[in-house]
TrEMBL record:
GO BP terms: isopentenyl diphosphate biosynthetic process, mevalonate pathway
Similarity annotation: Belongs to the diphosphomevalonate decarboxylase family.
Segments forming domain Diphosphomevalonate decarboxylase-like N-terminal: 10-162
Gene3D superfamilies recorded: 3.30.230.10, GHMP kinase, C-terminal domain
Keywords tagged on the record: ATP-binding, Lipid biosynthesis, Lipid metabolism, Lyase, Nucleotide-binding
Signal peptide as annotated in the record: none
GO cellular component: cytosol
Protein name: diphosphomevalonate decarboxylase
Length: 325
């Protein structure tokens, strides 16, 4: 029987209200709802085919052979759903730095969920794709959709999945990404958030705050209140990073240049140029602004950062199949 190959493309997403902590580590159920913006600039292409001649899964990332322990656990879920027992060939290309706090796990597992389920002969709905992607990486549940997306925490496998808030934004929003370090982080998101849950005395306050931030940002988005949306996103990110500093042992993803970029944003704001920052689990700073201000902001950032450290992103689309190149 000829082997069928499917290739999927998924974009990364940046959370404006962060997911930071799990109530169930096996099912990847989060402690709070989160909300993100899918980005056009960063994405993953993943190709999957099942092959009865394989003795184990084969996984190449950016043309380099990888360990298969984590991906095989995910592929086992797909095999169980499809009643399949053959292994798969998985080839993936990240058009985003891997494990650098630019959400490669989000685009990776969203693309893998679609490509692997199709290759296994499954036709999953988007909510089912979101549930499946979630099992690989929580943030991947949101990359099934474009634009603004909310991951509803739920209480079990069935009830925890993302929903689109607005897929096609009719809003001149953009995100400038200041790439401070593309290297792999020392503490993965998975390990960092678990350490926080187990040791930060501030975690209960985070849960309460995240809920309030989420409803406030949804209102700001609906009302197209950019300043309110940016303020809530920036403050929510800082609360998450404060948790890391309050863990034991304490840790931080910030580097000196991250703080310089944040201070520059604050200076621009004091001059009346409205822009706001957010950081995920990594040192790279993402600046939310209006398209009309982006060139002024970029000009100012160039006084401190090299041209190739500054990238411009807009709202991106949800996961889809693409033709194999
Ligand atoms: P990031 O900030 O990039 O999301 P994480 O701390 O979430 O970093 O870790 C990324 C995880 O995603 C790692 O386990 C890494 O191996 C996995 N990953 C990244 N890219 C891919 C890919 N294209 N296919 C499968 N797994 C991937
Ligand atoms: C800071 O989804 O990468 O980017 O579920 O353990 O794979 P796992 O973690 P991951 O965590 C993302 C954390 C974050 C915030 C967010 O994207 O909501
Ligand atoms: Co991640």
């Amino acid at each position: 029987m000829p082997v069928k190959t499917f290739t999927a493309r998924a974009h990364t997403n940046i959370a404006l209200i962060k997911y930071w902590g799990k109530k169930n580590q096996d099912l990847i159920l989060p402690m709070n709802n989160s909300l993100s913006l899918t980005l056009d600039h960063f994405y993953t292409d993943t190709e999957v085919s099942f092959d009865q001649t394989l003795k184990q899964d084969s996984f190449y990332l950016n043309h380099e052979k990888q360990d298969t322990a984590k991906i095989t656990r995910f592929m086992d879920l797909v095999r169980a759903k499809a009643h399949l027992n053959s292994f798969a060939r998985i080839n993936s290309i990240n058009h985003v730095p891997t494990m650098a706090g630019l959400a490669s796990s989000a685009s990776a597992y969203a693309a893998l969920a679609l490509a692997a389920s199709k290759a296994a002969g499954l036709e999953l709905s988007r909510p089912d794709l979101s549930r499946l992607a979630r099992r690989g990486s929580g943030s991947a549940s949101r990359s099934i959709y474009g634009g603004f997306v909310e991951w509803q925490q739920g209480h079990d496998d069935q009830s925890s999945y993302a929903i689109p808030i607005e897929e096609d934004l009719n809003w001149d929003l953009c995100m400038i990404v200041v790439v401070i370090d593309k290297a792999k982080k020392k503490i993965s998101s998975r390990v960092g958030m678990q350490l926080v849950i187990e040791t930060s005395p501030f975690y209960p306050a985070w849960i309460k705050q995240a809920e309030q931030d989420l409803s406030a940002i949804k209102k700001a988005i609906k009302e197209r209140d950019f300043k309110k949306m940016g303020t809530i996103a920036e403050e929510n990110a800082m609360k998450m990073h404060a948790l890391n500093m309050s863990a034991s042992p304490h840790f931080s993803y910030f580097e000196p240049a991250s703080i310089e970029a944040m201070q520059l944003v604050e200076l621009l704001r004091s001059e009346g140029i409205y822009c706001y920052y957010t950081l995920d689990a990594g040192p790279n700073v993402k600046i939310l602004c209006s398209d009309k201000d982006s060139s002024r902001i970029l000009t100012r950032l160039r006084t401190r950062f090299a041209k190739n450290q500054l990238l411009l992103a807009h709202s991106g689309p949800g996961v889809r199949l693409i033709d194999k190149k």
